[in-house]
Amino acid sequence: MIRGLLSPWAKGVVFVLAAAPAAWLVFAAATDRLGANPAEALLRGTGDWTLRLLCATLAVTPLRQFTGWAALARFRRMLGLFTFFYALLHALAWAGFDQGFDAADMARDVAKRPFILVGFTAFVLLVPLAATSFNRAIRALGAARWQALHRLVYAVAVLAVLHFFWMRAGKNDFAEVAVYATVLGLLLGARGLRWLRNLKKTAGTPA
């Protein structure tokens, strides 16, 4: 398994797998295969894949710590950038299909509908994370400030689930929401437990 993760082809495989849903959505839209409501299908598809890639990104560190496979860290940045990519497509689908790229209508929609406000806030928080996902940004910010900034991903995860929950509340359909909430809750919980353990170790270390 370690050899596979360290393979020069591994990143290419992850890239293709992460890009494949977007390629399918483009192909399906071009060939009229998105069903009776293509706009809704694109909104739903890009939103779903944003959540899936967010879960995959947050899963890297706990899996690395649990398995000892340090090579998993190679894929975290790529998965995070794909999360932003799908979030951007989702935002563009909303802006284009729902609002016709009218800035005034978009502002009113954000102010009027809480689930849009929450989703928009999550997207805005993702922007600086994507913009600083490169080595030059890490050097410019310094490791401590960079890490503090990238902890915003936890807020993004909470807001993303809340956005999905409110969106599904109108249909009274919470099955998928529960799945994502459980997965993200476990991933964030694992980080919380590790932080508490480290805090206890630090507190127990003689000065």
Layout of secondary structure:
Layout: H1 2-6, H2 10-30, H3 38-67, H4 76-98, H5 103-112, H6 114-131, H7 135-141, H8 143-150, H9 152-169, H10 175-204
Helix pairs in contact: 2-3, 2-4, 3-4, 3-10, 4-6, 5-6, 6-9, 7-8, 9-10
The proportion of strand residues reads under 5%
Unreliably modeled segments: none
Helical residues, percent = over 70%
What coarse outline follows from CA principal-axis ratios? globular
Number of helices, counting only DSSP H or I runs of 4 residues or more: 10
What is the CA-based Rg, rounded?
A: 19 Å
Which class of secondary structure composition applies to the elements? mainly alpha
User: Average pLDDT value?
Assistant: 91
| Major beta-sheet overview | none
The helix-strand sequence is HHHHHHHHHH
Number of strands: 0
Q: Determine the N-to-C terminus distance.
A: 41 Å
Structure description:
By secondary structure, the protein is mainly alpha-helical. Helix content is 82%, strand content 0%. The protein is built from ten helices and no strands. The chain has helices at 2-6, 10-30, 38-67, 76-98, 103-112, 114-131, 135-141, 143-150, 152-169, 175-204. Helix 2 (10-30) packs antiparallel against helix 3 (38-67). The protein is globular, with a radius of gyration of 19 Å. The protein starts with a helix and ends with a helix.
